[in-house]
Design brief:
- The structure is a single chain.
- By secondary structure, this protein is an alpha/beta fold.
- It has a six-stranded mixed beta sheet, sandwiched between helices.
- The termini are far apart.
- The structure holds pyridoxal-5'-phosphate.
- Pyridoxal-5'-phosphate binds next to helix 12.
Amino acid sequence: MKEDKTMEVMYSSTRDAGVKVTASQAILKGLADDGGLFVPDAIPALDVGLQELSKLNYQETAYVVMKQFLTDFTEEELKRCINAAYDSKFDVKQIAPLKEADGAYYLELFHGPTIAFKDMALSILPHLLITAARKNKVENDIVILTATSGDTGKAALAGFADVEGTKIIVFYPKNGVSPIQERQMVTQKGKNTFVVGIHGNFDQAQTGVKQMFSDKALAELMDKNGYQFSSANSINIGRLVPQIVYYVYAYTRLLADGVIAEGEPVNVVVPTGNFGNILAAYYAKNMGLPIAKLICASNENKVLYDFFETGKYDKNRAFMLTSSPSMDILISSNLERLIYRIAGNDAQKNAQLMKSLSEEGVYEISEDMKKQLSDFYGNYTGEEETAAVIKDLYEKAGYVIDTHTAVAAGVYHKYKEQTKDTAKTVIASTASPFKFTRSVMHAIDPAYDSKTDFELVDELSRISGVKIPQAIEEIRSAPILHDTVCEVEEMPSVVKKFLGISADGTDQRG
Ligand SMILES: *Cc1c(COP(=O)(O)O)cnc(C)c1O
C-alpha cells in the first residue's frame, strides 16, 4: 500500500469555532472546555472502494475507517488498538455478524463481553486513550471515574480491566441497580478495577463524580502521585469513531454475499437513546457509504420522534420507565453534533440553541435546518407493540430479539407501511435477548413470568437454539470480588484509598 498522505483532520468544539485540537487531544479531553462536543472539521471520504472493502475482515475494515478520523495516530498504534480490542473477548470471529430474519438484516452488535452494543466502542476506547496520553506526553496513569445506573459501568469495567496505565473506579447506587447488573459489576476481574456501592441514588453518584472531576486540590494531589482523571463518557469522539466501522462492515457484507449490488442504497434502523449510534451511521453516510434513510427509533420517551416531526426539541415532559431502559433518555447529548452540522457548522448558532435547552429545556430549529433532516425518518414503538414485535418475529422466523432491537423493528414496520420503500434494510441489534431475558420471555408468553431468572435463561436458550453467552454463565458462578460500600460524602476518600494516596497526600503504595 502507498504511503498514506491523508490530510490531518482537526477537531473543533460545537460551541466555539476557535477551538482546534488533534484527534488524540480530543479523545483525552472528552468534552471541550466550553461544554461543547468535539467534531471533525470535515468528514473524510472513504478512500478504499466498496468492492475492495468487502474482502476485508472486521479489524481491517476498522483500520480503513478509523485512520481517516484519527489522523495523528500512526498505523502501528491504531492497529495495535484495534487488535487489542476486537479479539477473543468477542464470541464470534466476525465481531458484528449480520442475520437475516423476516426480510430485514439484523446487525448483531452484542457479541462482546457485556452482550450489548456499548462494547463495540468501550473495548477500544481504553487503548485509544492510553495511546493518546503517551502521544501527548502525559506521564500520569489515567484514572477513569464513572457513575453508573447499571449498564455503562459494566461495559467500561470490562473495557479497562488490566489495560496497562489505567485504573477504573465505578460508583453505583447500592439499592438502585438490578441484582443481575450488580452481580455483573461486583464479579469484575482485573487488578486495576474498583467497584463501589454508595448509599444514595444515581444522581448523587453522578454529582459526586462530577465534583471530583472539578476539584482542583484533588487534581493536584492526584498529579503529585502520578495520576489524572478522565471519563469514558459516550460523547467522547473515541467512542463515536469506532461505531462508524460496523455500518461500513454491514454494507460490505451484504455486497460480499451478493444481497446488494455495488452502490445500491440500503436503509439503517437504529434504536436510539443518546443519539450516538445513529450519528455514527450518519457519519458513515457522509463518508460516502450508500445509506438511503437513517431511521431513528424511539421508545415511549419519544422526544426525537417529535423533533423530527416538528423541528422542536422539547424535554419538558414526563419521563417514562420502559422495557428498553437504555433508551429511557430525554436529553440525547450526541444530537448536538447533528444540530451543529445542519446549522452549517455554525458554533455560535448551535451554542444559542444549547443554551436554550439548558435554560428552558426546549429549542426550535429554523426551516432551513429542518430541510437538511430529509435523510432521517423518526418514529416510536409503544410498550405493547414492542412485546408483540418480539413474539411475532419469534413465531415467524424463530429469531429472538431483545426489547431495544424490537423497538427498532417496530419502527421499521411503520416506515415500510407508510412509504412502501422496499430497499434492503439493516437493523442495529443493540443487545442480546439474554440481557433482558425476563421482558423477552414475557413477550413470548406471559406464562413464563412465574419462573426464576436462570430458569428463563435456560428456556430462552432452548427455544432460540442460541448458546447461553459467557457473560451470563459467569454471573451464575463467578466469585464476588468487590464489596466496598460507602456514604456519598466518602467518595473522594475511597478514591484516594484505592489509589494508595494518604489523606495528607503522600504516596502509601509499597
Ligand atoms: C445505549 C443503548 C442504546 C442507545 O444508543 P445511543 O447511542 O445512546 O443512541 C440502545 N440500545 C442499547 C441496548 C443500549 O445499551
